[in-house]
Amino acid sequence: MAKVFIYPTTSLILSDLVARFGHQPLSAALQVRENIQTAGLESPPLQITPEDPKKGLKYAAVEVPSGVRGRMSLYGPMIEEAEAAVIIHDADFSFGCMGCARTNELIQFLLRKREIPILDLRYPRSDEEGVEFVAAIKKFLEELPGGGV
Amino acid sequence: MSKVRIAQLSCGPEYSGVQNEIAEAARSVDAEIFFPDITLKDIRSGFDMFGLDVRSPDLKLAIARARALVEGTVEADAVFIATCFRCAEAAIVRNELRRYIHENSRLPVVSYSFTERTTAGTLLTRMEALTTIARRRALLAREVQEGITMGVDSGSSTTKAVVMRDNQIIGTGWLPTIAVLKSAEDAIELALKEAGIPRDEIQAVGTTGYGRFLVGEKIGADLIQEELTVNSKGAVYLADSQHGPSTVIDIGGMDNKAISVQDGIPGSFTMGGICAGASGRFLEMTAKRLGVDITELGPLAMKGMSTMVPMNSYCIVFGTQSLVNALAAGSTPEDVAAAACHSVAEQVFEQQLQEVDIKEPVLMVGGTSLIQGLVRAMGDLLQTDILVPPHSQYIGAVGSALLASGFIREP
Amino acid sequence: MKEYTPRYVGTVTKYVFVESPDMTPSDLAIRAYEISKGVMIKETCFGLQITGSKEEVDQIIARLREFDPSHIFVKDRGFPPGDPRRCRANLGGARPGYYGHEFEISLIRHVSKGIQELPGRAPDQPVHPPEATGPAGLDARKLQKIIESQES
Fold it and tell me: Of A57, B98, B311, C89, which has the most beta carbons under 10 Å away?
């Protein structure tokens, strides 16, 4: 079973397909859950405190906006953990965790720098594309270490 | 009293750890933050129709939510726009949304760029102003002072008090702020003495400025109000420009305000307070370095040419260094004074005045408006004649006294 | 800042979406209650939220998937169900993630189709996923020809 970074990190479709085909999707929810379930100082809604953008300095310099650094404090560790990634490129309506275009560019860049297997595609717009979309993801996942359900 | 509902249009606060600070600031003025409820279809159409093709999904969402507010499909009392400091994409959206809402609705709007260091305290005055405008339109509609009232402006640098009777200023007091309460008491004494009125004849009192709560509680004020709405009111009252649009610029000791006013009520405003280089403090330091009183700096600057002195820094420390170097290299005190005025005006112009729409008349108020060199420099930058109303240094105190007359109880 | 004491520590919450011609969210809920064994289940407009230990939740989800494998979709959720920090009633509007779901649900039928077709595909059949990037720009020579043809 490989840890697969999904982009958008909030995607229902990718979360489902990666788990369905036997791997562990690395989604935003896991990191949010860790925040929500850890005691500390109260900072609703996401339990991201002003300390988190400082942790994000590991991934982006101080002149980078706090929202980018705060998001990177969520995603940076996930990118480091990832053994593969599936990236949907036309994820224009993913808000919140994926709401900042600059963060999203940085996530993609850091994933590519890791030289892990990456599958690039876009959302299917027809049944025919849907079939190819699912088949491609399945094939990609099967070829990963521990793949093949 | 029902809560004032402030619609939040934003990108990034939840991820900067400051969303709770925004909510807390709103709560402390009995308001609540909410996120306009729209559908995915609304997001698509709202964003497409607005026509600003940004990449960040949360900015698209903010644009569509702004549209819902302007069209009235979502109701709100006020709007708070917040995006990350140093994000160019968000800065463009923030400005355009502020302008769009200001021009197309009656909703008061304030925009702010935050960092992870932003606290509820920083946001308090802005939230208070938003709720005042939403909640107290009737109070702010007052155009004439009645009875005998007093206003106290407890500012970060100076404390001002004014006594008014039947729409006339009859006593003033002005002192540097040392101990907040003591300075207020002394300024009040001065104003009462000049007015020739004993304290117990005052029928209502208003306070404003940084020390408004402390002073207001101590002297039993009827109205304790932030300086954004009070100064706007005072400015248009003293300039006799109570109807139609105007722009109020107040360069203070600790922060600057730029307020776009319509019929005496702020429509949109910004408040800056990160850099001392853009404040009255810089001019005080310049005066000290030149060995003149602050009251002499203005006339001195009027005789000088700012372009004769190289100023490469906006920082109060390095900026002062530039002036010292210029003096050492033979620049005249007149030119140095003019350069200092130009530097402050330019920073306020670049940082604050880009975020409100400048509509004439442009009124400069507060103590710094008495420094003619600064007013001239601002006029040059804005390419307009700036109006400094009489008693402009007492603007907050006058605004407070004016509004306080709404609290006079019938005998 | 106040101290924060988390609730539901050690639990996982998962969304179960159903987008099916044969099964409504309430049908799914009834099935889920039958096998829930006390695990927390919350019915929503799109399906369910299930909260419990990872093993319990995974077991229930595996059983639920069997009812309609190509129309049931699952993902993790960071918050427990009904959390006031994400609740629509408290925010005034939907949490941001809601719109992302709304968008994906609008095209998920194509994914369902893909899942249904999979067993019929030869294992070595080449795949042609929807391409991430658009078609390449026009060749300069072609462009030149077009310009020339317009000018003549």
Answer: B98
What percentage of chain B reaches a pLDDT higher than 70? 99
Percent with pLDDT over 90 in chain B: 75
Delineate the domains of chain B, giving CATH numbers in brackets: 4-135 (3.40.50.11900), 148-228+395-407 (3.30.420.40)
Whether residue B12 contacts residue A66, with contact meaning beta carbons closer than 8 Å, is answered with yes
In a domain, residue C105? The reply is yes
Provide the shortest C-alpha distance from residue A62 to chain C (in Å).
Answer: 24
Distance CA B143, CA B341 (A): 33
Average pLDDT over chain B reads 92
| C-alpha to C-alpha distances, C148 to B166, B246, B299, B369, C142, nearest whole angstrom | 83, 58, 69, 66, 10
Give residues with Cβ within 8 angstroms of C12, minimum separation 6: A33, C51, C52, C53, C54, C57, C76
Number of Cβ atoms within 10 Å of the Cβ of C118: 14
**A13, A47, A141, best to mutate vs chain C, most C CBs in 10 Å:** A13
B113-158 tens-digit pLDDT: 999 999 998 899 889 999 999 888 888 999 999 999 999 999 988 9
Enclosing domain of residue C104: 12-120
Q: Minimal Cα distance from C99: which residue of B?
A: B40
CA A133 – CA A67 distance, rounded (Å): 32
C75, A99: Cβ pair inside 8 Å? no
How many domains does one find in chain C?
1
Q: Between residues 88 and 117 of chain C, which touch chain A (CB distance below 8 Å)?
A: 95-97, 99-101, 103-105, 107-115, 117
Confidence of residue A66 (pLDDT cuts 50, 70, 90): very high
Which pTM does this prediction carry?
0.88
Residues of C in contact with B7 (CB under 8 A): 92
Domain assignment present for residue C1? The answer is no
Average the pLDDT over B257-271 and give the result. Answer: 88
Check whether B84 has a pLDDT greater than 60.
Answer: yes
Report the pLDDT value the prediction gives residue C136, as an integer from 0 to 100.
Answer: 67
Å between A126 CA and nearest CA of chain C? 6
Q: Tell whether the model's pLDDT for residue B1 goes beyond 70.
A: no
